[in-house]
Amino acid sequence: MKLNWNEGWLFTKDASLIADFRKVLEEAKWEKVSLPHTWNAKDGQDGGNDYYRGTCYYAKKLAKSECVGGEEVYLEFEGANSSADVYVNGTLATHHDGGYSTFRVNITEYLEEENDIIVAVDNSVNDRVYPQMADFTFYGGIYRDVNIVCVPKAHFDLDFFGGPGIQVTPIMDGKNAKVEVVSYFTGLTGTENLKYVIKEGDKVVAEDTIAAAESTHSFTIENAHLWHGRKDPFLYTLEAILCDGEKELDSRSVRFGCRSFEIDPERGFILNGEEYPLRGVSRHQDRWGIGNALLPEHHKEDAELIYEVGATTIRLAHYQHNQYFYDLCDEMGFVLWAEIPYISNHMPNGRENTISQMKELLAQNYNHPSIFVWGLSNEISMKGADDPDLLENHRILNDLCHTWDKTRLTTMAIVSMCDPNSEYVTIPDTVAWNHYFGWYGGDVSMNGPWLDDFHAKHPTIPVGVSEYGCEALNWHTSNPEQGDYTEEYQAYYHEELIKQLFTRKYIWATHVWNMFDFGADARAEGGEDGQNHKGLMTFDRSYKKDSFYAYKAWLSDEPFVHICGKRYVDRVEDVTKVTVYSNQPEVELFANGKSLGKQTSDVHFFYFDVPNEGTTELVAKAGACEDSSKIVKVAEFNNDYRMVETGDVLNWFEITAPDGYFSINDKAGDVLKTMRGKMLFMELMAKAMSGQKTMVDAGSMMNKDEMMGFLGGFTVKRLLSMLGTMGAKPLTKEQMLEFNRKLNKIKKKDK
Known about the structure:
Distance between the termini: 74 Å
Number of helices: 14
Largest sheet: 8 strands, parallel
Shape: globular
Number of domains: 5
Strand order of the largest sheet: 33-32-31-30-29-28-27-34
CATH class of the largest domain: Alpha Beta
CATH architecture of the largest domain: Alpha-Beta Barrel
Number of strands: 44
CATH superfamily of the largest domain: Glycosidases
């Protein structure tokens, strides 16, 4: 029996130690909360990198009379970030490290008639629990469900890394599926039996009863109905009932899918023998004003929005997501990349935590047919890929995945500046790269050729793109430029990336970073602090940016037409470009009822030159689909469309830039080509990174060609403004102006 236990909790930040737990209960300043809950819903999204990271306490009373239906009582926590201590009547019952997975504790031996449950949850900085450094907020709290689970002495194992105690492995053999079932129990006496029933809808397709002690059993499903992604995400149901004679003790109901797949270095992803291009998005789980304390309706809305855009795959970054979301993906046919938060900064003291988090990911998610690859790490080589401890950690994780799961492959997301020839790249079965050419340095044209070069040099390694994207807020322009944060540049960027990535069959998967804007409290970019704005939709899910529809045009079969720039109404030019996206072969645009012509496009993007006089009502038609918008002629540019940064910001007119000399408006790569410029940078970076847990260190950053090739495309101003994101001390306006004065003394011809 499982009882949801979300209501009626008390919460406090005030308590310190709970050696005398009753004193804490009496004296702490408690507030009433319901779960899911996070204490960083606001301060984790407002910028400044100053959200509260520490230990907070949750308390609730438990009457023994609530624990009905079994002889043993467990508390089940589906997510408490990042570490948790569970106390029952002042006694520590368990400790758990890892904020994104389920853990349970058997509290039977501690129970009295009336019980005080206190949970100390800690998201503070340390050097052993991942993640500790990454471009997202580590929201603290009990942010998923808590349940009371009551079971008899003999029951499905609840103590093995939070898993369900049953493992279903369907293997295709021609048209038939061999289904191996392994059940794990504790407390068996030897008299129990196990009844299995496999159903196709309401129809029983296989059943058997065995002695529970046998644990392993196989079935054959003839002419199995395949799970085939979005086209046909068919699920079978396995019911497993543990009995002692006629008495039912415990049971499990597991959905599974029968499918085969391979990832070919030339043909990409192949599902059930059919080439099935994986083109989709990455997802962070948080929301504006809510943090990571999501309700089921939030998860469902996210899945439906990703389905609408037409994605066939989701990378669930950078941690284990809610079980309900995996269930939705099983039902909707998404192909998933699931990973642990082994990210950015390799910590020698964190190896055991990577192993335990991977075991939890595997144990808890093994039965989901939507999962096809296990992700080992993300951008973990920020400080270099040749660390022997880092390499060994990856080999251990890779071997663990293959030992526990012989049906799936491994992968990892590699940071752009990593040496493609490093040993690290050869460890998993497949690889994918996080490339931001066209946003973080370089230009959009570099993405496809870089992948072609890697593919030519490493023809046996399946290669994908795990991240790519650029930021956009409600800023607008008719002349988009890299780094301007406009919706128009983001749309242009994704148009170019779609054309480059989707037409290369060998790329086994592509994942846009990100489907939704998300919380990153260290960020101070784009005029709105505390967020990463690379989403195809806004943080609150209320607005689909134009780039959303660029993907829908390529990926969705649902007929539609979309006029871009709906938030960009006031325009100064006499003739303005209007872009239309559609998955229909032909689009006609009307301006105040007059046709501006019909266009066809083999890339789903249509560009019209529109006379701009007075108010112009625009209507786009594509088959039976129609969309409308308007533009208005204005004499001066509407400054509401121009990015306005807040806080201690250095404005363009304060930057001196003498002719022939450098300034912080120049690209970092050009400054670093001079000896004096490189020395100034090293001195500045060393000070900013001193005593900080940064993703990179000053010395390695300046001396690695890959790193500087990546960062060199930034202007100095933009690079310095991002120090907080890398974990360093943000520079003040005065410090940036002082650095600019020093650059003003270096001649550009001084090579």
